[in-house]
Amino acid sequence: METFKEPIYYQNEHLCMKVWQFTNTNPKSRQLAQQWHYHKEVELIIVQEGKLDIRTPDNLYYLSPGEVVLIGSNQLHHSHKPEDEPLVYIVLHVDLQPYFDPAMMMYYRHFSEMVRPLEDLNYMFLENERAKQEIGRIIVDIHAEMMDKTKGYEIAMSMHIKHLLLTLLRHDRRELLQPFGFVDAAVMRPILDYVEAHLGEKIDMEEVSRSAGMSYTYFSKFFKKCVGVSFTDYVNRQRIRKAEQLLITKTDIVTDIAVAVGIENMAHFYELFKRYNGCTPKEYVRKLLRVVQ
Where's the HTH araC/xylS-type domain (predicted)? Predict the structure, then answer.
């Protein structure tokens, strides 16, 4: 089983997105095995003709015409065409971060995926037909704007993305998009970037708090208020997310992968992995292998 970090080539660098319509007329018997892959961009798909299956490590989505699915940033997933009939669908990849201007920043924490993956919002497309249709129309409209590139399409694209975020926010009846404390991106972004860049090393909270210009005690309270979990819990979750990717992108043994994500104590690594995934690393890989066979 091969897995890779898929590069997304934006059609307009300033818009930080790619949107494309795909047509697949091959019979099911000629489909190549799909690879598990991930990318930093959030992905939305709407099926227009035929059927498409989308799989993440924990969920399987059966998409028929008019159905949509949302896949969060860096979420492992793969697709499969289950039938012989022609398949037509639109895929939107977008980096949401640049769309949070000062007027939007108070909602950044809702969509940041610091604690809860955006994939969890797929419940609303099953429970709320109006939400599903509205998100589907937005994806189709974004594709039309990108293909036509008429005057002002950049403005239209920005409006569509904000409409998409608003639709998700207002139709989230389960209130999964919960805010925490106010997130000042100028303060928080360097902290999160530092954690991402140093997952394979010892991350000292005292050093991080100094770099953020805060005392150790204040930083601890500040981070939990902003993110909803402690700094240590956040770092551990990011380490395990990275380990999940390495387990199926590398041939390294589990011990080496644990060290690569900064956890040298194997008992601690197994305890954390099972806490977040409900299974051991070996069981996790076996589960993903079964999906693509």
Answer: 189-287
